[in-house]
Design goal:
By secondary structure, this protein is an alpha+beta fold. It contains three helices and seven strands, in the order E-E-E-E-H-E-E-E-H-H. The radius of gyration is 16 Å and the shape is globular.
Length: 141
């Protein structure tokens, strides 16, 4: 008791994943995952070495959804309770239109714009700061 837990330092750090919370008058952009871990997610992906979460969202969201984005700001970060990965949630808005299409069919089965109510149903364990951001941002959308 009282002794600090030691780590031999040989285990790799978990990858950092940046997810785009992309909102428009159509709602929030979400994706259905093929592996269902978790079943639904926000578009994004792992950071490349030296890449910021905002830069990862600007790179990954168009690749996965066909929607170019701008205006990034970090909403929050956490260790995902089911995957154990470091998640950084970054807000952004479409910069060149809202037409979405599936750009990563190996990992994703579908990309759609969803209302806050639909997102609540599909993502019941949504990170609270993200839910609060969506409730403020999508009000009246």
């Amino acid at each position: 008791k009282g002794e600090p837990m030691t780590d031999p330092g040989t285990d790799p750090e978990p990858p950092v994943v940046a997810l785009g919370i992309i909102t428009s008058s159509l709602g929030v952009l979400i994706a259905r995952r093929r592996d269902k871990i978790p079943p639904y997610t926000f578009p994004g992906g792992e950071l490349l070495p030296g890449e910021s979460p905002a830069a990862a969202v600007l790179r990954k969201v168009p690749q996965e959804t066909g929607v170019a984005v701008a205006g990034t700001e970090v909403i929050g970060r956490r260790i995902h309770p089911k995957t154990g990965r470091v998640m950084v949630y970054v807000s952004a808005a479409p910069s060149e239109g809202t037409e979405a299409h599936l750009g990563d069919p190996d990992d994703l089965a579908e990309v759609v714009w969803a209302s806050l109510e639909e997102t609540d149903t599909l993502m019941p364990d949504m990170f609270k700061p993200v839910h609060e951001y969506l409730a403020r941002t999508l009000r009246g959308a």
